[in-house]
Specification:
The complex is a heterodimer of chains A (265) and B (220). With 265 residues, chain A is α/β, with parallel strands linked by helices. Chain A has 12 helices and 7 strands. In chain A, helix 7 crosses helix 10 and helix 10 crosses helix 11. The chains are: A alpha/beta (265), B mainly alpha (220).
Chain lengths: 265, 220
Amino acid sequence: MTGSFLDTTIVIDLSDRKRDSTKRFLDANPPTAVANYALRELLAGYLQVLCGLHNRLKAASSIGEVLVALVALHPSVGRKKQAALQAFAESFQANTAGDANRGVEAVGRDMINDLSLRIAMTWARSRKCAARVQPLSCFSPGKLTVGPLGEVVPPNGSFNCDKKARCAAAGYVYDKQSLLSKMIEALHPDALDQALSEKREIRQRRKALKELRDKGPEKFDKAKCRALGDAYFAAMCMPGYRVVTTNQSDFVPLCKAIGCELVEP
Amino acid sequence: MNPETHIVDMKPEGQSVILVRDVFSSGTAETSSGREFRELVETFSAPTAGDAAGLGGTVKKQTVPLSTLYPHLEDESSEAGRVRSLVSDALAASEAATDARDHGATEAFSQHLGLLALQLRAASDSAENSVLSSVLSFLKRSVIAADPSSISQQGWNALIVALRSLRANPFLDLEEAADLAAELEDHGWRGSSEVIEGLVSAFLEREESTAGAPAMGETL
């Protein structure tokens, strides 16, 4: 029996119920485990963006300001901004056109409330999607709450780790010295195909791993914690488990180098 | 002590105690604070020490009226009171629907579902509490989207328990609301908002393509 060690993409998949096939796969491949690092990634990335959107929409006092909020989304949303705008506009139109008695304000309020519930459901499900392993001393996946202005407030008031604490994820990976060196070698541009070697994310990962190897976890720049990304899951996959991801391509060189099993449902 | 009963508080006068009974132990959708709230008003007079020794006392139930603890919930001129009244109406509609369902009256069941959806909408529109409003809205969409012929017995029970829980405790927090909605989804209800799913999907694709990239506020 081979257990399933979930990466962040799978946690999102499970939490958002996007594909039944993922759940079926995990049911057939127990036990399942999720690292606290995956929750940390989810909160600092995906959920932070959604909460930011929610709070912007909450602050908007007219449909015009809502559109401005969407247009002004963080640049990392990039090419998907148009899709977001389109989805919003079409549904907003459908909602308001379907009920002449309800004002734009009421429809907008419902949508904002729905978004906060949706965010909370994703977070609640992600925290329960599998047995949680590898606690992080710098991060506690607590509850989302509603603040006095109606904003969604992250656990302990921050989407990121405790600024005063050492990066615990880096500490875990640093303990795997032999794997650390192999992963750095595996991500060298000469060892990758052209597509991977040109990916900014891969370059950042190698840079972060090198810094960790050279400086150690005490002096490792905490801002690079999330750059460890796939390397964390590959290095920290437990004996008897395999890494489960929806984004296999980035993992392949790492897993090949350190002998970690990998599967995409 | 009965394994489903334990004492959480003891009043000094008359040896009365508050007993906690986990009557919703079947895993249905009741929030923890909803349970605590319900349990709080299920107050019992326990036997005195002498009674407990077998000298003839009996356990007597005493219920504290909600209006004593939260008077505004009973006042329909207040927002909280109006919402609670509408949730009560929704619960009554769900009970009528249950009767129709039990008698195999499909058309009547479907009609009661429509009424239930309308009452949920009225409650959602009236609720100024954003968390409560969002859950009621989720319930409304769930009922609207449901195929009456394919609602399972478990799913139907989960919906009724959720309504009861909201009636007992309108003060649920965001996490409790999320748990309640997630449990309903687990029982087959589909209450997600299409517009929100559209927005989230756009971000989902973005996240999958950039997992591991720095978050906002983080720099490399």
